[in-house]
Amino acid sequence: xxxxxxLTAKMIESGELNRWKELLRLRLTECGWRDQVRLLxxxxxxxxxxxxxxxxxxNNEVTPKARQLVPDAVKIELLTKIKxxxxxxxxxxxx
Length: 95
Fold this sequence. Notes:
The protein is mostly helical. It contains 5 helices and no strands. The chain has helices at 3-14, 16-30, 33-47, 55-69, 72-94. Helix 2 (16-30) packs antiparallel against helix 5 (72-94). InterPro entries: TF_ENY2 (IPR018783), TF_EnY2_sf (IPR038212).
């Protein structure tokens, strides 16, 4: 099993992955990101032909803009938690 697979399994087994997902949802809601993305979706639907637009097309149009709207503070917080987890678990494996 590759080291990446082992770490992914540890993230899932420890519950960290779910905690990070919940933290991300909370932070994105707190900063208004979800509302902004909802508006982007509405605008995309209004500009396109609703009857012909698929979910995949909507996703392809909105996703790049939505990713740019994620505040740096949210990215940094989550990346710091992931980095700490990886450092702690990589060190434990090597001991």
